[in-house]
Each structure stands twice: as structure tokens, then as C-alpha cells.
Amino acid sequence: MGEFILNVIHRPEMVPEYSATVTGHGKEEDIGDKKLLTESLDIFKTQQRLAHENGLKVTIHMTYASLFNEEAVRIAKHDHEAYGDEIALSLLGLPCEQFREKYKTKDFCIWMFSMEDKKTIVDDVFGKFYETFGFYPESTGSYYMDAELTNYIKEAYPSVKCAIATCWEEGPKAYHTCNNSWYTLFDGGPWAPWIPSRQNTHAPAADESEDSGIVAIPHLSRDLLACYDGNGSNFGTHPQNVLRGMIYDSKTWEFPYLYNLIDQYRAQEKYNNGYAYNMMFVGPGWMNKMGRWEAPYELLLKSYSDGCKYYGDLKKEGKLLDMTMSEFADYYRKKKTYTEPECALWRDILYGSDKQLFWYTDPYMRVGVNMDQGGAIFDLRPYAAKLKWEVGIGTKHVQDASYPVLIQEKYRAGYFTHYAGEGTIRSAKICYKGEEVDLCLCRTKAHFSQEGSTRVLTLDPVEIEFYDLTVKLRTRMYFEEGTGTIRFAREILEMSRLDAQVEINEYMVACYGTTEYPEDMSRIVLRCEGKEEPTRESYAGNGDLQDHAVGNHAGGDHVGEDHAGERLCPVLSRTDGCGPEVKEISYEYKCREESMADAKEVSAVIPAIETKVSMRASGGAAGYIREGYAFSPMFTLGYKKIVSDKEVFETWLRLEKAD
User: Fold this and answer.
1) Contact 326/161 with Cβ under 8 angstroms?
2) What integer pLDDT is reported at residue 531 of this predicted model?
3) How far apart are CA 244 and CA 262, in angstroms?
4) In the structure, what pLDDT confidence band is assigned to residue 17 with cuts at 50, 70 and 90?
5) Mean pLDDT confidence for 167-192
6) CA distance 540 to 155
7) How is 418-467 classified by DSSP, letter by letter?
């Protein structure tokens, strides 16, 4: 049996973000209201009691406001001694009379301040914590912590080893479901713990030189299917999410979805070398006495009590290890390597469908694969770029901390679009005598395995019916650890006519950005490259490179090579003998397309996000590149190959940082 780790985190907010608006309804704002402070402390004490009654250790995230409250400090000290709770420091809960008076602002999101103010506030809060407890914390956190903030904290307060660093998929979807008022946009990060790089919080460190010095955990463990398809705030292992989403039995007040969600997180140990993680991070605001989320206080209380009991029972049965955040950071450092990926094979447990997703993240990419669309990639984030993305007042991104996409079916459409253009997706089309079937239309199921350091996703075969031919095809996807590469193998298992041939068109439609709105694509360069350069002597007397092509270097043995040193002539299309044949398109929204027989590589360089994405194919495939247009501002990379029964067509997708 694998190890299932739990972090329970409470924060004694003195001015809870929800309670303040409910308790003080109809009154002039008073963030020092004694009734509010008393209720907040009562709820915090209740949460602590429920966790301890079920044998669970807690990490107490002291807020700035709570550091001025003698009772909150006394409770933290007592529970540290009595139950082994960790006393940590939250960068949430900044608003209080002292903060407002000192900083003259209603801002409360630490990552949105200017860098100068971030440092001042961190020094202030950490200093007050030390004054109160006589030591500096080992754990901290917020909804999001940008890289510059994390780097400063680690440098100034080296005791910090763990931090809550982002929320999974808190982007435009969350913004829209909060009436366009929740200006905390930071989707595109990992859903499970990781070591963030010094360059970008979302992107895991690839080695020690990139290591920010902390272990990061997500703010809440979310449903990796329902959260992506809808509002993430409704689908998580915090009972507040389940109540907000109205996902409970209204007659019995039971919470089967919450338990199923916890169990699905437990099951992820099968895909992660015997390790799985879950967290519950709560403040007092959602449990106020006047009710919340259309639920009375009694239901709010029961949900948290039942949730703690479920975790406590798992611990008693030897199926759960509860840790404080700093304990977990030490555990994680021993358990994981830098390049080891996090994998999640996830199924629908809410809507009654058979939908299944696979998520993969490592220092080079975050990938989402949808088995309801034949194993198409519907979300792709190029972590390989380690994009420096400064956030806050005084930067280009005051609120938008999301990691840019190459593919994102919710913001930039996927396969299913309602207009003549294309949405972002990585899939394949099977073509025969003028008929075409996209694998996005072929539902299947996936099975996970591991071959050495490569994670393998094997999809159940699908049957594709043409007018006079039936093709049975199986897909395997190989995620090659430490390379930024995914290998796709399409195998023809059966054909109803043994002499038939079909064309497989492997394609990727992509763009970049962090929202639904298109970016300026004009600096993107698409490239189709021929075989390796022949010897200089072979050029003598003949300028046609194709007459002198050398061996096939598009196969698997060469995918991981670094080609940064290749010398290329800066022309649109070349067969002049000064290197491999190259065809380029500098993006101008003109619908242009170039192709090349037996192409070595097709690629796109996107300077705005410092990313190169490329595809390669097994021998004999024709590569192509395609420019989009203003109404469909995407680009397409692809390979086409004619295959027969029992043949396998392999392609590789690779992400790199563009210089």
C-alpha cells in the first residue's frame, strides 16, 4: 500500500473575508468590530477542536491580524505544545486596523503589491511573528506567491521551507463565476506539491540551480476534471467547496462526493511511485453563525466535522499520514527528484459520465489528455521556458499571474468550435479516399504504466469506419522524464481490407496567452526543416540539396539531441547547398502553408513566451506548417504519413526554451 499524506491548515483570520460582509451587513465597515473578532476566534477554536478530536495535526497559519490578538496567540502556543501543531505564518489575512493605518490601502493580495511594498510587508509581518513567538516560521503561504516574493522570503528568512504557492485553475473561469470581480488570475500551475523554480512559481525546478529553496503546495486539492470544466471553487476537498457547489444530500446532509474526491486523491499513489497527497486549508469566514452558501450554520459545522472524521478514520486504519507543512517539506525532499513527474489518471465522480483525463507535470511541461477525445492534448503549458513573469503594481501584470498556454480548450476553444476556424488541440486525423475522421471523435479509456523513467499511457483501441473500410487503431503516449518530450505511437491493429492504406495526419493547433483574448502573433516564426546537412564536398557542382539527402535522423534515437549549433541561412525557403532545406513563415495572418517530404522537424518559435515547440516523425512522413488568420489566430504544426495494416507511425512533441 502506498503513502497518503495529509496537510490540515487552519488560519485564525480576525477579519474573515466572508464573515465581515455577512456579520456586518447593513452597517458601516468596522474591521475592528469586537463581535466579528469574537465569532472568528470561536470558529477557529471549533476547527482546531474537530481536527484534534480526530487525531489530526494542524499547521496554524497565523495571519498578521491574529498576531495582535492575545487569545489567538495563546491558542496557537497551547496547541503547539499539546498536539504538535506547527505555528506558521500566513500572508493572507493582512487587513486589520494596524495594516490599514500603516499602509493606507485596502489591497490584501501580497503578490499584487509593488516589489518594494512586498519586501516591506514581509519584513513587517515576519518581524511581528518573531516578536510574538521568539522564532521565525518554517512555513508560509498565500493564494499565490510570485517567484520574486518567494526568492526574497527565502533569502531574508531561510528558515522557511514550505509555502502555499498557488490555486489550481484560478483563472478567467473563476473570474467570470465571481461576477467579474475576483481579480486573482493564476491558473496553469501544478495541482500537487512541487519545488518551484526561482524564475517562475508555476514551473517546477529542473535542478538545484533552479531550486527556489522551498517545497510548494497548492491552495486546496481540487477535482481535476470538474474544476477544469467549471468553477474550481465548487469542487475541492475543503467542505466549503462542496457546499458552495451544492454537492450534498439536502435531506440527510451527507457528503458522498467529498469522500469520493478524497479517495480519488488516495488512488493517485498508483501513478506516482506509491505516494499521494491531499490538503485542506480553511479560515473561519465560511463557518459563520449566520450561514453561508445557502446553508445554515448547523450544516456548515456538520460538513467540517464529518470531513475531519473521514480523515481521522483513515489515519486510524493506517491509510493516512498526517503531517505539518514543514514535516511534509522534509518528506518531499527525500521522496522526490527534480525531474520526477506528477501524474494523475482522473475520472468523473460527479456527473455520472465515463469521462477520463490524464494530467502530467514536470519541469518542462504541464499536459492534459482527454480520453473522451481519443487521447487529444487539451491543455499544454510550456514550463521549459521558465518564463520570468513579474506580477504586481509596477509590472506588466498587475493581477494576471497565470502561466501562458500553448493549448487550452476552454479559453481558446478545442476541437469543437462553432465557426470556420480552428481551436487549440493536439490530435490526429485518419484519412481514406477523401473521408476524414479526427480521433477527437473517438472516445476511449487509458491505462497507466511505467517503463524505467518513462510514463506510458496506453489507450484502448478505437474502431474507425469509412465507407468501405474499418480500421482498428491503438494509441500509446510516452512521457519521457527529463526531456520535455512526448512520443506518440499510432498502431494499426486491424483493417477490414488487408491491401488498404490510410493516411495519418498528426497535428497540433496552438497559440499563446493567458486569457480567452488573442495575443499578437506577428513575431512567431514557423519552420519546416529538411534532413541533416550533407558533407561540404557533396555540394560541388550541384545546388539541389534534395539530390544529396543523407540518412533518416527523424527517429527516436535523435529526438533528445540539442540542435542549437546548427547554422541556418536567414531566408524563407532554401535549397542552395548552405545547409538543410528550410522553409519558414513569419506570421502575418495570411493563411500560408509550407510542407516538405520526409521533413526532419516542424517547429514554431514564440518569442513572447520564450518557447520553441517542435514535432518530429518516424521516417517517410511529410511535415507541414500552417499560419492562421485574424479570425482564427492559431498556428498548426503537423506530419502526414501513409500507413498499412500492422504498421506504427510515431511522432514526437518537444518543448524547449527559445533563446
Assistant:
1) yes
2) 81
3) 17
4) low
5) 92
6) 60
7) SSSS---EEEEEEEETTEEEEGGG----EEEEEETTEEEEEEPPEEEE-S
